[in-house]
Amino acid sequence: MDAEFTEEQHEIRRTLRDLLRERCGPDQVRAACRTPAGYDTELWRLLAQRLGLPGLALPQRYGGVGCGATELVLACEETGRVLLPAPLLASCVLVAPLIAELGSEEQRAAYLPRIAAGELTAALAVPGPLGAVLGLTGPNDGPWAGGGRAGGVQARQAADGWWLYGQADQVLDGHSAGLLLVAAHTGGYVRGRTRLFMVEATAPGLTRTRLTTLDGTRPQARVELRDVAAVPLGGAVGPRADELSAALVRTGGLAAAVLAAQAVGAADFALSSTVAYLRVRRQFGRPVGSFQAVKHRLADGYVRVEAARSAAYYAAWAAGRESAPNGGGREDDIGVVGPLALAQALETLTHVAGESIQLHGGVGFTWEHHAHLYFKRAAADELVFGPVHRLRAHAARRAGVLGAGVAEGAVA
């Protein structure tokens, strides 16, 4: 493993950081979150046209830049630094890899170039908890799409195609996405299985309601499908159940690396902004940052951030190796490394953002201060993709650390 970044990777980081510094301050983030789309559409187009951000990790034959997971993770660290509200996670990390791996050639050619160009946004709509579906907090081979019973999303095949009926909650960017990738249960109760279906945002019978969320930078929606026409991902036959499960685990590993990098970028900014404030805030005739107890707290935060950054970079390397043509190492490496890196990064962001609120004093406890945005990001990501103790417990089970008699999530 070569831990040194290339000049191209450094340039991606520098260019993106300079652009986001100008266009994505705390007030601009709040304003973007209040728009109907939930993000700055003009900035998203600029990121797509100037930097190719949506297609950074997509193959060039589908309009992408042709980079790998490492470049995507480095870019996402910069987006996490400013808490960029954008459809990057939902479209380019959750949906695009699944279309690239499981879709037919016609589907890849139809959708991936539009996603890479920033023209089309997409969302993954699953009835179950997203962390479990992606194999981050538990096995994803269960009936999380409905299991043939009431609830979830059910798919039926008729002479004129496939039709979906059901509901999915907490769909990231589901209110504004132009394409929905919906997980639905097919085939009844006895011989049923879960499949992914593609649904256009304009399909009749589709209702999307934006939800009030803790973290406004990651908008969520409730998606209701009432006999909505859909196209199965991968064609008429589609992937087998074990192939779909493995693809979701690989996507979850990449998502975990991206989320970890975003949390590291957010924690790094929260820490640096706190240090800058403590250099100018004076008490008893001295800068607050000069007191030894305060220095110890800042040093502890710095160590946590650097350790989490190392874990996120290793998860990026593991995700890139997993997607390489020849693969590499054990098949479940990314299913272990990704959740562990995400757990450490979320724990770090929670700690550093909490310290930032306290060390800013009275102003830090006001809702208008930017420190609350970072604390909410940590709490919301853990609610959607965690919790931390389940991320670690499931990774331990996959790695064989825990015995068969230990239940999932039993490790705190």
TrEMBL record:
State the superkingdom: Bacteria
Domain (Acyl-CoA dehydrogenase/oxidase C-terminal): give its ranges.
257-399
Has keyword Secreted? no
**Pfam family membership, one:** Acyl-CoA_dh_1
Query: Does the record carry Oxidoreductase as a key word?
Result: yes
What cofactor is this protein dependent on? FAD
Q: Record's Gene3D superfamilies?
A: Acyl-CoA dehydrogenase/oxidase, N-terminal domain, Butyryl-CoA Dehydrogenase, subunit A, domain 2, Butyryl-CoA Dehydrogenase, subunit A, domain 3
Q: Which UniProt keywords apply?
A: FAD, Flavoprotein, Oxidoreductase
All copies of the Acyl-CoA dehydrogenase/oxidase N-terminal domain together span 6-119
What family is this?
Belongs to the acyl-CoA dehydrogenase family.
Q: What is this protein called?
A: Acyl-CoA/acyl-ACP dehydrogenase
The top of its lineage is:
Bacteria, Bacillati, Actinomycetota, Actinomycetes, Kitasatosporales
